[in-house]
Amino acid sequence: MTVTRQNYDQELEELRNDILEMGTRVELAIGQAVASLTTQDIEMAKHVMAGDDYIDAMESSIEDKCMVLIARQQPLARDLRIIGTGLKITTDLERVGDHAFDIAKIALGIAEQPLIKPLVDIPRMSAMAQKMLRDSLAAYIKLDIALAENVCAADDEVDDIYHQTFRELLTYMMEDPRNITQATQLLFVARYLERVADHATNIGEWVIYLETGQRMRKK
């Protein structure tokens, strides 16, 4: 193996590590955002919101590295897929970070209000979406197609909980109009978590594409 190739492989490894670090941060942000909602922890919500700029900066840094690699190495075939999927995954992770920010903002907005119901399904959705995110990143690092496929399959269960949560919160609105404002905010939270699961699914699909060259879209 030439020195040039060794350096290139090292740069690709550093790119994967950067993506893993970003993924770890956004997963933590989602967990903290939901925790700030369930415990009505104002300081934690502010902490999550303040961290969004750093996540955005990580996205920009990874994008810059990808563009430099493409320009300098002019990669072909699988090497090009490695860099291209890195760009796509980073975009999904940044959007997960945005959802964490949005959930924390809602948590901050209703922190002084009594919760209209004990929050059970929202933390459950969060735990499932976070696991999907962890597994999708593990699949990316290990190039594990089976794990990526499992992530994609898990999305249906999150969707089911989202629809269940939607129906339950709609009932709260119908029973007492005073619940409408907070219930609507909680619906947004559930929707954001459903989207986190979708982004984890996207990452799983990009892993499959990276290894097989075939695009897969969940039906």
Question: Can you lay out the helices and strands and say which pair or pack?
Answer:
Elements: H1 3-39, H2 42-50, H3 52-73, H4 77-109, H5 121-142, H6 145-175, H7 180-212
Can you offer a commentary on this structure?
Belongs to the PhoU family. Pfam families: PhoU (PF01895). Plays a role in the regulation of phosphate uptake. This is Phosphate-specific transport system accessory protein PhoU. The chain is mainly alpha-helical. The chain has one domain: Methane Monooxygenase Hydroxylase, Chain G, domain 1 (Up-down Bundle). It has 7 helices and no strands. The longest helix has 37 residues, at 3-39. It is elongated. It starts with a helix and ends in a 7-residue tail after the last helix.
Short description:
The protein is an all-alpha fold and 219 residues long.
Ranges with pLDDT <50 over ≥5 residues? none
- What name does the CATH topology carry? Methane Monooxygenase Hydroxylase, Chain G, domain 1
Helix content: over 70%
Shape: elongated
Largest sheet, strands/sense/barrel: none
Average pLDDT taken over every residue: 93
| CATH-assigned homologous superfamily | Phosphate transport system protein phou homolog 2, domain 2
Secondary structure tally: strands: 0
Counted up, domains total 1
What count of helical segments does DSSP give?
7
Q: How large is the share of residues in beta strands?
A: under 5%
User: Per CATH, which architecture?
Assistant: Up-down Bundle
Order of helices and strands: HHHHHHH
Rg, Cα atoms, Å: 19 Å
> So what's the CATH class?
Mainly Alpha
- Distance, first to last CA: 42 Å
